[in-house]
Amino acid sequence: MTRSDIIATLAVRFPHLTPKDAAISVKEILDAIGHSLAKGDRFEIRGFGSFGLNYHPARTGRNPKSGEAVLVAPKYVPHFKAGKAMRERVGASDQAKPIRQIA
């Protein structure tokens, strides 16, 4: 599901919302998540999950073309952890199939 799919679903489900109002609502929610993460805070939606940051320390990587060792700087990467209710809902779904098998 894409951002435009979410907007269309909101506009259909809540007829008093115009597609423009639904788009503004979705944008504000996603902006709030982004601003929260940018400040280093955690963003939690009860029953759905939480967004946070995971720290990846500096490491030595390799340039795949030349094989040369390259220092990869430390960084924070966004991370989503599904809440218990969401995990149970997805696990019970008939549609829940692995996207790819890990060997």
From TrEMBL:
Organism field: Candidatus Propionivibrio dominans
UniProt xrefs under NCBIfam families: PRK00199.1 (NF001222)
This protein's name: Integration host factor subunit beta
Pfam families hit by this protein: Bac_DNA_binding
Family listed: Belongs to the bacterial histone-like protein family.
Keywords, ordered alphabetically: DNA-binding
GO cellular component terms, A-Z: cytosol
GO MF annotation terms: DNA binding; structural constituent of chromatin
SMART domains recorded: BHL (SM00411)
Signal peptide as annotated in the record: none
